[in-house]
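Good morning C.,

I know you're traveling, so I'll keep this short. The sequence:
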Amino acid sequence: MSKELSERLGESLAHLQDLTDTIAHSVIRRIRNSKKGDRIVNRSIRFLSELGDSYYRKYSEIKGRKNK
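The tokens, ready to paste straight into the viewer:
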């Protein structure tokens, strides 16, 4: 028997969220590794990049614990 519509829709939304998170994390890493910009902009970018990395590390850790 196939999955119910609600289950398929829920799984699709989870995949969409994961894709969005992956793209955002990739952009954050790319910005952090960039050498362009002035000192203040670099500090701001570095801060936001580190914030994003911390968020995704903790988010992955929490999701890993919930899936066990």
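Safe travels,
E.
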